[in-house]
Amino acid sequence: MKPKRTIQTIGMLALVLAFASVALAGAEKTLTCCGQAFADGREYALHQIAQHGAPGCAECGVVFSSEQEKARHMIEHHGAAGCKKCGVLFKNEGEAREHEKTHAPEKN
Q1: With contact defined as beta carbons under 8 Å apart, do 9 and 49 qualify?
Q2: What is the DSSP letter of 1?
Q3: Beta strands in 1-108 (DSSP E)
Q4: Is the pLDDT of residue 82 over 60?
Q5: Phi-psi category of 18—alpha, beta or left, where left has phi over 0 and alpha has psi -120 to 50?
Q6: Where exactly are the structural domains of the chain?
Q7: pTM score
Q8: What is the per-residue pLDDT for 4?
Q9: Quick check: 49 and 67 in contact, CB under 8 A?
Q10: What are phi and psi of 58, to 5 degrees?
């Protein structure tokens, strides 16, 4: 079941993306949330992940628009065991490979 996107979540992701574009342009900007000021985009993203349930990587602070994008990131960049087609994470590579077979077209 897909998590429901709320206006707050969509707005929060838009703020993270806006901050990233400002940071890339070299401008200094401070974002605030929950009474805290964040001058560092990574710290702001980590706050959004931990406090507001944004799908993101706690290891590097990247925020994603979906859990599937997060899972693919975890597989590609952090060596997590997961399905490369749908992004579902598993406890080990064996479970992930067995799951991937469910995506293969059926042979008659």
Answers
A1: no
A2: -
A3: 31-33, 36-38
A4: yes
A5: alpha
A6: 7-65
A7: 0.49
A8: 47
A9: no
A10: -70, -15
